[in-house]
Design brief:
This protein is 50% helix and 12% strand. The protein is an alpha/beta fold and 248 residues long. Strands 3-2-1-6-4-7-5 form a seven-stranded parallel beta sheet.
Amino acid sequence: MQTRNTLANIRIVLIYTSHPGNIGSAARAMKTMGLSELYLVNPKSFPDKQAVAMSSNATDILDNAVVVETLQEAIADCQLVVGASARHERSLSWNIQNSRECGELLVDQAENNQVAIIFGRESSGLSNDELAQCQHLLYIPANPHYSSLNVASAVQIISYECRMAWLARQDNKKKLSKNRERENIATTREMEGYYKHLETVMIDSGFLDPKNPKHLMTRLRRIYGRIHLDRSELNILRGMLVAFQKHK
């Protein structure tokens, strides 16, 4: 799994979809957010021209969609299964998260695992037996007075949350990498040694008149202070000064 893009490890599973247009719209929603793996459990009609039309050129998602007869087949190789549902068995204790929280969980797990998000029937969602096969449930915090969402719209929201979580993770990795690159910043003592060395070379070369310095060293300190040299960069500059002294 580690060789795959994280988003490629996030599988969208649609159960008993009755309207082929919803399959096409879901494929479009997935592709806009970088998801690519679609599984269909007993769709009423697929392949279907309406699905192609509604996919708006996301036909590669449809062409590679896997059609299976049971939910078990769709999630057999997954390490994490999340069910999208506004309902659940009240007598049971569920791990329930909103769509944003779940997007972060899915992306975290998809780094090294295959994960699946299950979306139920347009009219009735997921059955209790289907919910029982999920480790987590997610809900979309919609308007409580009108919370009805088309299945493709739900796929779009969850796909978006997954992408945002993935982008945040990429940004954090870049920041961490940048911080690691800058872990070896030169100390104040090392910089003071460099400034004294630089001042000596400038005086010896006649560039700096110690009787009339005109704040030159102060200005140079400000320049180097903005750069925040690391030790390897400082060693290059010290080496250059040594070379200049040898050829004066």
